């Protein structure tokens, strides 16, 4: 099980992305040299998936 620091970084990355912060900005905040490391820390929530689908729907059909 990951330690408290790792869990905090996962939480921070996920919350930043959920607030609409660009993944490259999150990468810089966390001090990662590669985007793949940032993506590993971040989790896509169900709400984030629903919001993305709604934005795609709006772009395509409205």
Summarize it.
This protein is mostly helical and about 60 residues long. The protein contains four helices and no strands.
Show the helix and strand layout.
Elements lengths: L3 H15 L4 H8 L4 H7 L4 H16 L1
What does this structure look like?
- Helices cover 74% and strands 0% of the residues.
- It has 62 residues and is mainly α.
- α1 packs antiparallel against α2 and α1 crosses α3.
- It starts with a helix and ends with a helix.
The average pLDDT is 88
Structural class: mainly alpha
**Which spans have pLDDT < 50 for at least 5 consecutive residues?**
none
- Terminal residue distance: 45 Å
Question: Beta-sheet strand percentage?
Answer: under 5%
Largest sheet: none
Helical stretch tally:
4
How much helix, percentage-wise, in residues? Answer: over 70%
- By DSSP, the count of extended strands is 0
Shape: elongated
Order of helices and strands: HHHH
Summary keywords:
62 residues; mainly alpha; elongated
């Amino acid at each position: 099980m990951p330690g408290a620091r790792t869990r905090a970084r996962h939480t921070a990355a996920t919350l930043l992305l959920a607030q609409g912060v660009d993944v490259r900005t999150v990468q810089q905040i966390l001090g990662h040299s590669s985007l793949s490391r940032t993506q590993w820390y971040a989790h896509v929530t169900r709400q984030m998936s629903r919001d993305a689908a709604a934005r795609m729907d709006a772009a395509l059909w409205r």
